[in-house]
UniProtKB/TrEMBL annotation:
UniProt entry keywords in alphabetical sequence: DNA-binding
Gene Ontology MF terms: DNA binding; DNA-binding transcription factor activity
Source superkingdom: Bacteria
CDD domains: HTH_YyaN
Residue ranges annotated for the HTH merR-type domain, each copy included: 1-69
A Pfam family per the record: MerR_1
SMART domains in alphabetical order: HTH_MERR (SM00422)
Name by which UniProt lists this protein: Probable transcriptional regulator
Record has ATP-binding as a keyword: no
Amino acid sequence: MRKIGEVAHLLGISTHTLRYYEKEKIMIPDRDESGDRRYSDSHIQWLRFVIKLKETQMPISKIKKYASLFLEGEHTASARLSLLEDHKHYIEQQIKTLIDVDGMLERKIVAYKDFISKTEQPKHR
């Protein structure tokens, strides 16, 4: 079991973020006899998943919905699946957009390099 500061450092997030996730019921840590938060390996695995969802632009409201469904139990598996499939589709669209933009940028870069190489005058001594 790890303390909040250790987990924040391990995951590269702030203790404020961990407290926020708890407040929003995205992740509920255990508590020791003093009431201090303690995080297990399964908490850390879940937090890594949450961080990845955030990195891929899943709104907190959907992450909260997913967490809530998970806590409700196995009967919500279809709803959780649907939520993740929707997000996967969003990511696939983003990847397609990024690939298209990357190609456009590459063509522009090549054109500028070509233009610059043709317009630079060689220096004679």
